[in-house]
Amino acid sequence: MDNQNFFLLLAFSLVPALVLGTRNHVYIVRVDNDLKPSVFPTFKLWYTSTVRSLSVPSTTALDPKPNPNPNRRGINSKRLLHVYGTVFHGFSASLTAPQAHALRTTPGVLSVIQDRPRQLHTTRTPQFLGLVSGPASQPNNLISSANAGAGVVVAVLDTGIDPGHRSFSVAGQPNPPSKWKGICQAGPSFPATSCNNKLVGARFFATGYQAGVTPKNGSSDILSPYDTNGHGTHTASTIAGGPIDGASFLGFATGVATGIAPQAHIAVYKICWSGGCFESDMLAAFDSAVADGADIISLSVGGGPTPYHLDSISIGAFSAFNFHGVLVSASSGNDGPGEMTATNIAPWITTVGASTIDRCFSADVTLRDGTVLSGASLYSGKDLSPDKWLPLVYAGNLSSLRLGFRSTAPFCMRGSLEPAATQGKVVLCERGVVPRVEKGLAVKEAGGVGMIISNEFLDGEGILPDAHLLPAVEIGYSAGKIVHEYIRTEASPSVRLSFHGTQIEVKPAPVVASFSGRGPSTQSAYIIKPDIVAPGVGILAAWTNSTSPTELSLDERRTEFNIMSGTSMACPHVSGIAALLKAAHPDWSPASIRSAIMTTAYVNDNLGRDLIDESSGNRSIEWAHGSGHADPEKAADPGLVYDLSTEDYTNFLCNSNYTELDIRTITRTAVNCSQKSGMPWDLNYPSISIMVNQPVATSAGNFEIVVNRTLTSVRDTHSTYTVSMKEPSGVHMVIVPDKLVFNRKGEKQQFVVKVSAHAAPLKAGASQTEFGYISWTDGVRRVRSPVGFTWHQSF
Ligand SMILES: *[C@@H]1O[C@H](CO)[C@@H](O)[C@H](O)[C@H]1NC(C)=O
Ligand SMILES: *[C@@H]1O[C@H](CO)[C@@H](O)[C@H](O)[C@H]1NC(C)=O
Ligand SMILES: *[C@@H]1O[C@H](CO)[C@@H](O)[C@H](O)[C@H]1NC(C)=O
Ligand SMILES: *[C@@H]1O[C@H](CO)[C@@H](O)[C@H](O)[C@H]1NC(C)=O
Ligand SMILES: *[C@@H]1O[C@H](CO)[C@@H](O)[C@H](O)[C@H]1NC(C)=O
Ligand SMILES: *[C@@H]1O[C@H](CO)[C@@H](O)[C@H](O)[C@H]1NC(C)=O
Ligand SMILES: *[C@@H]1O[C@H](CO)[C@@H](O)[C@H](O)[C@H]1NC(C)=O
Predict the structure, then answer these.
(1) Is there an atom of ligand 5 within 6 Å of 656 CB?
(2) What residues have CB less than 8 Å from 294, skipping those under 6 apart?
(3) Which residue's alpha carbon is at the smallest distance from atom 11 of ligand 1?
(4) Which of 156, 183, 226, 696 is deepest in the core (most CB within 10 A)?
(5) Which residues form the Inhibitor I9 domain (predicted)?
(6) Which residues are catalytic?
(7) How far apart, in whole angstroms, are the C-alpha atoms of residue 225 and residue 89?
């Protein structure tokens, strides 16, 4: 019966129509697979039918070959070039422009993009964040109301900066604010003239490093703020690089490269060296940055899970945030997707996780049996090889046994692959253990001609594109399984690799990146971390002249820009947004700026669905995305904020049972906790996390909890806010009052969330968390806070 319907549908769709334009191009078609009619047993059949249903050009004379089957007047099925089923749902096909146009309105089709390796479009993250750089006459535009961040100084604690890069040229850049006291610390490759109105300060901190580590001979360390690594140049330009037309990386992601706050000032504090970033140096950098008068500190450097009072980032950030009004934005680390992997989790740090944008650099693996698996690559050369199948081998079968490389060969560690067996082949490597670009080098050195990197289970479908030295495609876990199975079962497995350049308007986006560090926080279950997610996959930004884009010494390429992925790339986006908000609202505290970013964040992707987690393909949860994805234009007008004082944090630390001595390490002033009697969730944070401990004897019973919050109006008008909510599953919430009236800017109103829940049946030591939210609105603005409720069963 299904077959019959299918047949009817095909027949119905073969009505020819007059169309103009017969020149074919390759188009990449994104499809919403959820809309597949059940009559089609496979996606491929559905796609094929969709393409065949497109009308045929009226002038087929241009087609040199006669149509072999006059009854099949639809498009030759051969024109369905690829079927994508992992990161990308859809297909590519050779179509005329009118056919592509017709496809755009076909049900189930999300986007139709012409496959052009070097197409013109912008570098995209400002647009993806909704930042429009329009004329100043548009009052509701954050870039113009913030004057693009002019007058705000962002301290970048990183690997230094390449001051000669065009992104840091001074054209049109106003003077730094008069309070600015920074210096330009000269040194090798960094003359005192390196600083200007864009790069207003530069220092380096190597004392701790030099004391702790003897740099390796031949290390690239230069004792000056000069960036020999590239990371610091990349993050600084993401925050505040000036606009550069025609930027690209080897032809990928062509467009205008610009920082999020292109008129903000940068002050560089070099804390990272070839042997690492040392806490003592970091703390010194925090000190200097605050003393110099920085407004924002951006830190794409992580620490391990350390109690707040033993973590110099946390300590440095506390003073910056509380005593000096400096917002500290830091990356949540790249150790996801496991739980409790987030770093930089102190409640006074804005913790930033990473998500994708609507751009990808797609590449395909075609197995000889016809299977096409889509992946990603920044390899800039030709396809491998369009007219010949190449032998495919699994790296685990190539180990130089005599050298004992059995365990490292699957990961393609350099020297682990036997050249005699690798020569002339495409090698399947596992992701992990060694840097991805180094795997390519290992394969190349052993004589391999191409490489496929397959995700491991925990990486899920999250794919990170790299500028490999040989033709290489990275594929997700499920595609990897298919390749493994193909190699195992085929007598002579063979393959082709093809590269498709840059695609934009990719859906769904954003998607939470697999690698992004996740909560719950190792230091406090009462604070949801990360706070926010922002673009951190495939980000184009400035690069240093002193190293290659892969950072491999054997790679002789030098590029003005580079495409990188990591929470290191996400953090500077939020630092840039904070700079814009600070410029637009100089009177806002760092807690207010963070609150504005968090309460206006969104939790839906560009298909209107809940954010997806790349690692599972399932709905993302708050331990992964926090309050959601940053939305700077909304954050500029949050209506209400959850502000915080130093005393609030002191109470939080007391209520979390930190000792007075430990608290003093953080706050630097004596505290007396004996009169504090609240709970840690009373901290006036823009999100809420409650945890209850169930004594082992009572898996029955009820929990009744009252959570206090105070909202502050940031608008000078009368406004009435009403509340809505979604209760975490199994939890009852009542919000009192359910209406708040504000008459002026700065006015505060308190409310309580009365939470009740039954005990949950859990094994000893186990926990369970459910999430909901509360949301205040005046009809225009929305002030949303996720609410987490965790049951924990004692041993
Ligand atoms: C980068 O290096 C090249 C040659 O090594 C040089 O010509 C160019 O000026 C350098 N660019 C910058 C921005 O320093
Ligand atoms: C490093 O280089 C110095 C001088 O070139 C040499 O004396 C020293 O032995 C080298 N150290 C190592 C560990 O190779
Ligand atoms: C290749 O490796 C797999 C997994 O380790 C093994 O099952 C298979 O037998 C090996 N194939 C050859 C030809 O050695
Ligand atoms: C994703 O969701 C499916 C269906 O609900 C479930 O079976 C699977 O375990 C989930 N995967 C992960 C990694 O949570
Ligand atoms: C702090 O210690 C007190 C007394 O032992 C205990 O009742 C309370 O639950 C603890 N608070 C936290 C957040 O662990
Ligand atoms: C803290 O305050 C309590 C009550 O006011 C007082 O008894 C106690 O001595 C104080 N502790 C310290 C260390 O000052
Ligand atoms: C919470 O708010 C209620 C009512 O506004 C107040 O009575 C109570 O003291 C507050 N609790 C804390 C710990 O601030």
Answers:
(1) yes
(2) 153, 154, 155, 182, 267, 326
(3) 545
(4) 156
(5) 26-121
(6) 158, 231, 568
(7) 45
Among 713, 702, 654, CA closest to 678: 654
Query: Which atom of ligand 7 is found nearest the CA of 751?
Result: 5
Task: Provide the pLDDT for residue 113.
Answer: 67
**Nearest in space to 426 (alpha carbons), one of 464, 454, 463, 405:** 454
| 217 Cα: distance to centroid of ligand 2 (angstroms) | 6
Partners of 790 in the β-ladder: 691, 769
Q: What is the pLDDT of residues 534-578, one digit of tens each?
A: 999 999 999 998 999 998 888 999 999 999 999 999 999 999 999
Fold entry, domain 640-793: Immunoglobulin-like (2.60.40)
Q: Report pLDDT digits (tens) over 618-677.
A: 999 999 999 999 999 999 999 999 999 999 999 999 999 999 888 887 887 788 999 877
Q: Is the CB of 164 under 6 A from ligand 1?
A: yes
Give the distance from CA 462 to its chain's centroid.
11
User: Which of the listed CATH numbers 3.30.360.10, 1.10.1510.10, 3.50.30.30, 3.20.20.70 matches domain 362-499?
Assistant: 3.50.30.30
CA of 678 to the centre of ligand 7 (A): 9
- Spelled out in words, what is the top-level CATH class assigned to the domain 132-358+509-636? alpha beta
DSSP 69-98: -TT--S--GGGEEEEE-SSS-EEEEEEEHH
708 Cα–ligand 7 center, Å: 6
Residue to probe by mutation, ligand 1, list 545, 556, 559, 562, most atoms within 8 Å of CB = 545
Task: Annotate 748-763 with DSSP letters as a single string.
Answer: EEEEEEEEEEE-----
Q: Low-confidence residues of the chain, pLDDT below 50?
A: 1-21, 58-78, 85-88, 115-123, 134-137
Residue 744 CA, ligand 7 centroid: distance in Å: 23
Q: What is the pLDDT of residue 215?
A: 61
- 648 CB less than 6 Å from ligand 7? no
* Range list of H helices, 352-468: 419-422, 436-445
What are the sequence ranges of the domains in the chain? 132-358+509-636, 362-499, 640-793
Q: What is the CA 413 to chain-centroid distance, rounded?
A: 27
* Ligand 5 near 322 CB (within 6 A): no
